[in-house]
Amino acid sequence: MRIGIAALVSGYLLSQFYRAFLAVLAPVLQTDLGATAAELAAASGWWFLAFAAMQLPIGAALDRHGPRRTAGVLMAVGAGGAVLFALASAPWHLNVAMALIGVGCAPVLMAGYFIFARSFPPASFGLLAGMMIGVGALGNVASSLPLSAAVEAFGWRAAVAGLAGFSALVALAILVLVRDPPSLAHQEKGSLLDLLRMPAIWPILAMMAVCYTPIAGLRGLWVGPYFNDVHGYDPLQIGEVGLWIGLAMVAGNFAYGPLDRLVGSRKWVIFVGNALTVACLAGLWVFADAPPVVAAGLLVAAGLFGASFPMVMAHGRALIPAHLMGRGVTLLNLFGIAPIGLAQIATGRIHAAAPTDPASAPYEAVFLFFAVTTAIGLLIYLWSRDRTD
């Protein structure tokens, strides 16, 4: 089972990589394809929207067919999307390619969570979920300075083509190595509506909608144009900033994992962490025109504090019956991912509509959007019921 989980973690490394690599590629795509910041935001948004749209079908597939076929087949689709990205000759090609890549990445984390929920003690779920995201977040790190170096050495098309080949190998490894837990689909009946009828889950869904959105949106795209337009950074310098943010996200995922056991609460660990994230976002809004070290420091801090996704997932998972585990974790993931796609499209339009003088003004609007929406979700989450295993 461990080697199968390793294959899924490799798939999640790719998922983290693909959702963030446009931040580094933004300057070269603007030059080679004539893509605007709004068009790149839309391409990033299509990754998240396609990813989110697949969650409910994936939940049913996990319950009925298991994680091996569900994750392996779709990862092969993602490899095809990476091939299309490498061949892109117009900005709209990026939308199609990113959507296909999003489809391919959609099942891998939930396949791992499905195995953790069905094959390991309930109390260990938060720790295992945090570890998988923590290791997988190294893909976020790889999409920063290492990608910048690869693009500099080989060109962006060759670098992405290499990623397509690696994605195909991971798809094959999942199909060969993953072992499915015994199916419970024939023992009990239930549906997604059974989950939505549970009042206790709604405040958690609100928290899911904002706990990952700001840092995913900023690290996944806006870091690149912001440091390029406001501070004159080149792709290698942008990659360095992205590297530090990615490392902070890795550290945050590992730090959140055991905190519910240490503190004796999931709700208040999540609340305090996300309140600190809101403070960082507000700081970015206020100090967007400050020296770059200030913005970089606030983004690194937001990456650290904004890594509560696995803890929020663990809070919601504790409410889900075993026979609906696939549908349940993918419902949570749907609320965690779909808002990112919508936010990327919205912030693209906000950026395009904002004044351009000073150069930081469009980005101040983007930072304010993320701060306000995260604060709203945090207030709704106050109505949640604490739950630990």
What secondary-structure arrangement, pairings included, does this model have?
Elements: H1 2-20, H2 22-32, H3 37-53, H4 55-65, H5 67-86, H6 91-105, H7 108-119, H8 125-136, H9 138-142, H10 145-154, H11 156-177, H12 192-196, H13 202-211, H14 213-231, H15 235-256, H16 259-263, H17 267-286, H18 292-305, H19 309-317, H20 325-353, H21 361-381
Brief sketch in words of this structure:
The chain has 389 residues and is mainly alpha-helical. Helices cover 79% and strands 0% of the residues.
Task: Report on the architecture of this protein.
- The chain is mainly α.
- The chain has one domain (2-180, 190-381): Growth Hormone, Chain: A (Up-down Bundle), CATH 1.20.1250.20.
- Helix content is 79%, strand content 0%.
- The protein has 21 helices and no strands.
- The chain has helices spanning 2-20, 22-32, 37-53, 55-65, 67-86, 91-105, 108-119, 125-136, 138-142, 145-154, 156-177, 192-196, 202-211, 213-231, 235-256, 259-263, 267-286, 292-305, 309-317, 325-353, 361-381.
- Helix 1 runs antiparallel to helix 7, helix 13 crosses helix 20 and helix 13 runs antiparallel to helix 21 (361-381).
- The longest helix is centred in the C-terminal third of the chain and has 29 residues, at 325-353.
- The radius of gyration is 20 Å and the shape is globular.
- The two termini are 23 Å apart.
- The mean pLDDT is 89.
